[in-house]
Design goal:
The complex is a heterodimer of chains A (about 525) and B (about 160). Chain A is built from 21 helices and 16 strands. In chain A, the strands form 4 sheets. Chain A has a 5-stranded mixed beta sheet with strand order 2-1-3-4-5, with helices on one face. A 5-stranded mixed beta sheet of chain A has the order 13-12-16-14-15. Helix content of chain A is about 40%, strand content about 15%. The N and C termini of chain A lie far apart (about 60 Å). With about 160 residues, chain B is of the alpha+beta class. The chains are: A alpha/beta (about 525), B alpha+beta (about 160). At the A-B interface, helix 1, strand 12, strand 16 and helix 17 of A face helix 2, helix 4 and helix 5 of B. Chain A: Its cofactor is FMN.
Chain lengths: ~525, ~160
Amino acid sequence: MTIRIYVPKDACAIACGADEVAEAIAAAAVSARQPVEIVRNGSRGMLWLEPMVEVVTPEGRIAYGPVEAGDVEGLFAAGFLTGGDHALRIGKPEEHPFLAKQTRLTFARCGIIDPASYADYRAHGGYKGLERALQLGPAEIIEEVKKSGLRGRGGAGFPTAIKWKTVADAKADRKYIVCNADEGDSGTFADRMIMEGDPFELIEGMTIAGIAVGATKGYVYTRSEYPHAIWAMEKAIEVARAHGMLGVNIAGSPYSFDMEVRMGAGAYVCGEETALLDSLEGKRGTVRAKPPLPAHKGLFQKPTVINNVLSLTAVPHILADGGEFYANFGMGRSRGTMPIQIAGNVKFGGLFETAFGITLGELINDIGGGTATGKPVKAAQVGGPLGAYVPTWQFDLPFDYEAFAAKDALIGHGGIVVFDESADLAKMARFAMEFCSVESCGKCTPCRIGSTRGVELMDKIIAGERVEANLATLTDLCQTMKLGSLCALGGFTPYPVLSALNHFPEEFGAPPRRLEAAE
Amino acid sequence: MPHYEPWSDERARAVIDEFSHLEGPLMPMLHAVQETFGHVPDAVVPMLAEKLNVSRAEVHGVVTFYHDFRHEPAGRHVLKLCRAEACQAAGGDALAEHAEHRLGCKLGETTADGRVTVEPIYCLGLCATAPSAMLDGRIVARLNERRLDALIEEAQS
């Protein structure tokens, strides 16, 4: 009997040797005269265990990890094809506390199915959302998304239904759905994982968006640093087309929608939606002044929905299970689930999807297991290079757009980068300014020149030169960048800089902060 | 190791033409040119300008805006080290210094023998298994000095 074995094809697993493991398993199976079928799935998101190999047994799927090619011989000897005991045996992955504690909607299928298989996607509830969308029609689809309370997962948290309604109401001969998959923030990889592990979900979400607003063409704009995600998306688009789920008259309906993948070229600012649109048009990735909003004049000046991968992949679930079901999760005005990415110097790094409201401390200490180095945690940068450094005494902060904003921090795309006590926060603040100066599109002065002056100021502060006066200038400069920049690049760079300065002033040569009674 | 073709006007036109049916075709065209020739030669700029009915300055502006597009060919192997925050938190600074020391050149430069170009990259999305690197398109995570040395030796061979 052929035994089915899952070896992830997620980029993270490949970078940890999954291809070599798959080859070793195939070779060992030939030697053992045991027919096996190796399925290259996505990742379950327990990335410290990658490559995590799963064997299908009568009791269910049994996982082993992290497996290196050199472990395969020993695994075969231990009878891993029948779920035999071994030092690397994890047991049933869904019973692992890291997965058991999650609420997986967007990532429900990721790591379970074969990402290239249309049948597998269907068998696990895929295209149920689209089926319902086709019954409802455009106005009711938007109503359903509105009920869900879904807010843009790219970072801005703008209500998705309002954006869609604006595009639906706009009159034009052509409209577009653009998926922002330019996931450039360090510490984030959810978009990449879903594109590699469940690409049909993004296709389904974009198709539903297209029907809702009357768009017939979609673009996924992603990064050149993500070759595996591009490959997986293109493959899935081809398969969807072959099954009549993309193209003219989708699934026999009167609606038509098709899509393609476009690759950026290493410019961080292209993650900003208007810079992304210019880049898609074949221009420099320069930020546009708003208004006009992309919803009115977006790609090629046509009404355009531009949404993040995680917003679009939430849509099939909202349609399949109803907006109210989705809205049941979360807290305050942050409804539904958020795929949170735990990374950096952390013991158990990975993807953790859960309802809004979980605290940062739970995520980093309980779920993440603290630092990989074993040293005490010093701070975590949440929300990418433009996110604030949150010190340990604020780790009771719940994951919620408003709660973060109240502490001058942001959730961004849900990435958490953990730093241990060896981190030099003044150096990190300098890095934030330098990154902004390199990546600035150059359109607005506060960002273009402010960041360069910011690097110079940081150099002086680090050298101990007129520290007090330079810190005052730095704070003033940050205020100008925050209020005067055209987009989030210049506007949010002050978050990491000022948070590092406010929480760890002694590292900038300033007097230590006074303990605040409230904290 | 990637193999690139020598420059040819005719070949360049053929590569560009493959994408002329697309909306907003300049970026896919530039990627294809670089994939074919290893960099974006100056000679291709007027060709693209004519094809897309835009000025040479506009094409030049696009080519120089994006970090990916090379004006000069790279070394025989390209080693990219992630220098973003998650990799910094996991010891990336020391590894970058180690690579510079071993190769005898700074990030962004090519070794004197033209074998290896070493560059910073800002995030490969492997942040939970940091630090990471990419050698000629192959990604490697959980980088440590031993693994980095192996990559450097492979690139130098």
